[in-house]
Amino acid sequence: MTTVNTKNGATASRPTVLVGGGVLGLCVAWELARCGHRVVVLERDRVGSGASRGNAGEICSPIVGPLPAPGIVSTALKNMYRKDSALYVHPMAALTMGTFLLQMARNATAERFRAGVRALAQLGADTYDRFAAMSDSGVDIEVTRREYLYLFPSRDRAERKRAFLREHYPVRDDLGELLDGPELLTLERCLGERARAGFVLSGQAQVDPSTFVDALADALRANGVVIHEGARVTRIEPSSHEVRVESSVDTFAAGHVVVAAGAGSAVLTANLGLDLPVRAGKGYSFSIAPAQPLTRVLKLEEAHVGAVPLGDGVRIAGTMEFDAREDSFNPNRIREVVNAAAPYFTGVDWTRRTAQWMGARPMTPDGLPFIGAAPGHSRVYLATGHNMLGVMMAPSTAHLLARLIGGHEVPALRPFDPARALGRRARPVNRTVPGTSRRRDE
Ligand SMILES: Cc1cc2nc3c(=O)[nH]c(=O)nc-3n(C[C@H](O)[C@H](O)[C@H](O)COP(=O)(O)OP(=O)(O)OC[C@H]3O[C@@H](n4cnc5c(N)ncnc54)[C@H](O)[C@@H]3O)c2cc1C
Fold it and tell me: Which ligand 1 atom lies nearest to the CA of residue 58?
């Protein structure tokens, strides 16, 4: 057992172990190291091998809300078995996912949605400051300010989305006028015939998620944090004076443990008596090279697809797939994203797409993450379930969680208290550990 020392039983001498080397685990490790913790990160594969590399890297806090919004979930659930639906539930997964999807539908009320928006706005209130603080303290990242261009096939749908944004978010100063197709074309020359109406939202940003993960890992190592890759955690066993963490490389005696294992978190918390409702919602991305460059982030709202300028090309990201085989790569989902996105572009050879990727988002039925102490276990904390918002919410989550672990009251974290998952006992675990991303270049 690697015990970075347990002989005298002094908690202070034990490391804090982070389970999961995704964007959440690495950001939490960074904040804890800065607070003086000796930190060890255990990652079953390579850092960023879950959902944290191939995503869209949009940073649009505080205009974020939980996925279960009134109307959206019921429409999605009605179409969920259709293979061209943006939310696709594989028939084999329907049995295991039934309760989860039902809970999601129940959470899609106007009242809960508003409460979720308020909570996430508070969590992300200082997002840009937190990214800046990381950069100032040695993480080599660049946050690029970008306008977002929302696109729709019709004027009334664009107007409805504009009204929705005005109703729920503080965007009045950033929201542009409604534009028609020819006006949109003057903004982005690569737009296609389905981009018939839209509007600009200014004041948003974007980060290259892969660069972010690498910069975090580099900064951590440079600051003495040990990152074990290929270290799969198999059991977390808290006692009164330490937490024993069993992994494929060694057993560690930790003072505290933070579970940030993304879609793999529920498996790890099962033996803590917590049936954590975190499930893998698989998303896909790939890159294209339009003949005309893209300068803004495109939000193809009806297609449920985002398009972001990245490097020399454009990353297209989207779809939500609940599948019994949680780490499998489904080429049909890529095809559906292509079909949904292609009419919004011109001058793109869609057969020449590169960097095809799948990542399992850690989804929760109320659309909110779990951040805080695991119920009944004062030495085990959770930082998981960030749904579709993990990149933008990671720095502020990490900052607030480090304060909580340091013994401070953190009211902004109350809505995310893992205690809300209580009341349901852990089930026997016999599913494969999910959360692996797949990259497929053709
Ligand atoms: C297509 C797509 C687009 C997205 N776009 C955006 C966006 O624009 N903006 C945004 O903010 N978010 C976006 N997201 C969501 C974002 O990617 C996730 O919320 C975020 O990456 C979750 O980070 P995480 O660290 O919690 O999980 P992960 O990145 O999955 O990391 C968890 C890590 O834990 C490891 N792990 C799991 N089990 C174990 C174990 N037993 N032992 C050791 N290690 C383990 C995994 O290997 C993995 O590396 C998008 C997601 C997808 C799929």
Answer: 8
